[in-house]
Amino acid sequence: MADELLKETERLIKERPLAGEVLGAFKDLAALMAEEAPEINETSVDKRLQDIKREEGFPLFSRADLPLDLDSAAELLQKFLTILQTRERPDREGLQAALLACTKDDAWSRNLFSMVLRNDEDALVHIADGLDLEAQSLQFLAQMALTPSIQALRDFYAPQIDTDTWDHGYCPFCGSLPSISFFDKAGKRYMHCELCGLEWRFPRLKCPFCSNDDHKNLGYFDVENQEGFRVDFCRQCGRYIKVVDKRVFEKAGPMELENLATLHLDVLAAKEGFK
Fold it and tell me: Among 185, 179, 191, which Cα is nearest to 269's?
């Protein structure tokens, strides 16, 4: 999976010059992720309980309780920081401080991972401020360090996950919200999990965040001179989600990369008052 991500990153850098800077920075991380082989901490999931959870709309795991290989993730985070703190970046000193923190105390990385998995934004801001780093940057690096372990676990449990009949706006595997969505070649709508990358079918006229299906309160806007991309929004909850229309492209990139390559859409959505 990580090897393919690295190849696709290189392809999109060539095909999307405007996104080259952000994808180029990600390429360094993708190369390190491709080297990881995290252990899978198998957890027995009772079949009857699993069926009940699915029927009642509960994911297979909660994101805070995913049995992840945190040792592997901590090592990967150190590798990220070791490389990035050598680059000419405005946050270089903050990255050096983070590297020092995680090398001095093993519990530091585990605490950071726990914040990310719990979606504890206040705690992330507090720890990032102490390092003179942007909380969003620290969260991104921690989540990328967790990704190989999360995706290995997701693939292991894939046979037990029903993505065709699941019609909730959160991931059937880890319960996380989607970060981006897409239309496949047949025009069917899919959500892409922001944490584990799982993709599941979802109704075209429904908000994944508040389940609003009143078309009068749903809308979208296109991006000038960028066919194949749009932003869906919901006036009821004020949320938005980016959309990639794969029917327009001969080959779209993995959604992890499309999410990075379309950061300008997040800026546009924020200017329109959506969150």
Answer: 179
